[in-house]
Amino acid sequence: MDRITLPSLDGPPGDRLEIVSAWDASTPYQAWRPQILVPSTFRPATAPRVYAVVNQKGGAGKTTSAVELAAAWAAEGYRVRVIDADHQEAALSVWLVPQYPDEGPRHSLRSVFFDECTLAEATYPTRFEGIDIVPSGVDLQRVEYERPIGAEQAIAAALAAEAEAGTSVHDVTVIDGAPSLGLVTVAALAASDEVLVPVKVGGLDMKGMQSLHRTIRTVQQKVNPKLRVGAVILTAWDKSDFARQLAVQVSTDYPEAIIVPIRRSIRASEAPLAEAPVRSYAPRSTAAGDYGQAAGIILPGRAAA
Ligand SMILES: Nc1ncnc2c1ncn2[C@@H]1O[C@H](COP(=O)(O)OP(=O)(O)O)[C@@H](O)[C@H]1O
Ligand SMILES: [Mg+2]
Q: Which of 152, 205, 212, 229 could make an S-S bridge to 257, C-beta 3.0–4.6 Å?
């Protein structure tokens, strides 16, 4: 199989998002531009690193964010594994088609929860250089109602087993969450160093944001004290007073996180059909550029570190 190399982006610097350490509330609306908020307390991470992309609202931009951050890190030379933790749509597995061998069993994340295989055995290459995938299908929902023993820790344990055996080959793991705060989502949070929260600017549900906030804080207190909120990603961003209010709200809820807008782009909605990341399908689009900038702040390339 020839794997497609994900491009570096050398876009015009004028199109890059400005980086600030505080919002300037006095900027008049007309002069207002999308900015990345990087709090002065923020420290970029180093590999290896595990990220959970979580928001219980469907359509928040989880799968898009998981794919584009993975693509940006793969373009930097990191070996990235994406894990599809959404049984409802399995959109990630349809977008980044796993390349199964001609023979032998086809494992998935469900097989890992039920101890039928290791995480490595459930990991398949994609068509893209540097990105491997642990796929899922609808049968992942069996985890929610059969609740296999140790499910909450299943992903964490599988990663730890790899690390212990010295067999882990991935620098970055990105878990694409389901639109629920069920057992699989808790398992994703329990296994992660950081949670990344995509929020769609057009479709806010303040109640939903509060229960997500509570879930993250509870997991931090009871299951995974090292978990931190790395970024809030404002997806399909466009200029509106609402977008500004939302940005201020999330920066209050998650003062430790960077807040990054990803501008609304038709290319982002076309890419899944093309079965390619936006970075490969439309490298000059704002979505590719904005995600590239976000990825570089969250986990800088080795050359920059
Ligand atoms: N920056 C963007 N601009 C325009 N559309 C976007 C953008 N990001 C995501 N979308 C679209 O929003 C929809 C929901 O995104 P998706 O990543 O599938 O969300 P989730 O995984 O949270 O359900 C998809 O149709 C996707 O193409
Ligand atoms: Mg999704």
A: 229
